[in-house]
């Protein structure tokens, strides 16, 4: 929930929570996601195939297969990179993010001059 606040959802001037609906939506999404994950775990432990190679060769792998391990790592890194770019776009073009150092106890601001210099 603190990360929803840093994105600026439901937060007003001074860091005051003005709308709790984004937090409710986040809670509902987490409940649904955990239910799907739990159902998938029960399905694959009781009903699903012994190994995925039998039904879905794409999901089967051998730990010694360097190409498959590289592909799996690459897919994860690409998804993480896309998530980072979504955060940058949110901060710059879609409402900004919550800045705790803004005058008056913090405020939501749009990042207008991004930099990669850590010394700034």
Q: Topology, please?
A:
Blueprint (H helix, E strand, L loop, with lengths): L1 H5 L14 H26 L19 H28 L3 E3 L7 E3 L11
Antiparallel strand pairs: 1-2
Membrane topology: Multi-pass membrane protein
Protein name: Photosystem II CP43 apoprotein
InterPro entries: PS_antenna-like, PS_II_antenna-like_sf
Stretches where pLDDT is under 50 for at least 5 consecutive residues are: none
* Overall tally of domains: 1
How are the strands ordered across the major sheet?
A: 1-2
SS class: mainly alpha
What's the helical proportion of residues? 40-55%
What gyration radius follows from the Cα positions, in whole Å?
Answer: 21 Å
**What is the count of β-strands?**
2
Q: How would the global form be characterised?
A: flat
Distance between the termini: 28 Å
Strand content: 5-15%
The total of helices stands at 3
Order of helices and strands: HHHEE
Question: Tell me about the biggest sheet?
Answer: 2 strands, antiparallel
- How much is the average pLDDT? 86
Transmembrane segments: 20-43, 72-92
Subcellular location: Membrane
Membrane topology: Multi-pass membrane protein
Keywords: Chlorophyll, Chloroplast, Chromophore, Membrane, Photosynthesis, Plastid, Transmembrane, Transmembrane helix
């Amino acid at each position: 929930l603190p990360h929803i606040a840093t994105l600026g959802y439901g937060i007003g001037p001074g860091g005051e929570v003005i709308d709790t609906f984004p937090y409710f939506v986040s809670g509902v999404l987490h409940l649904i996601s955990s239910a799907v994950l739990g159902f998938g775990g029960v399905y694959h432990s009781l009903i699903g195939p012994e190994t995925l190679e039998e039904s879905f060769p794409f999901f089967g792998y051998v730990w010694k297969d360097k190409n498959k391990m590289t592909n799996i790592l690459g897919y994860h890194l690409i998804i993480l990179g896309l998530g980072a770019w979504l955060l940058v776009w949110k901060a710059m073009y879609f409402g900004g993010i919550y800045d705790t150092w803004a005058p008056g106890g913090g405020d939501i601001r749009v990042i207008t001059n991004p930099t990669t210099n850590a010394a700034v």
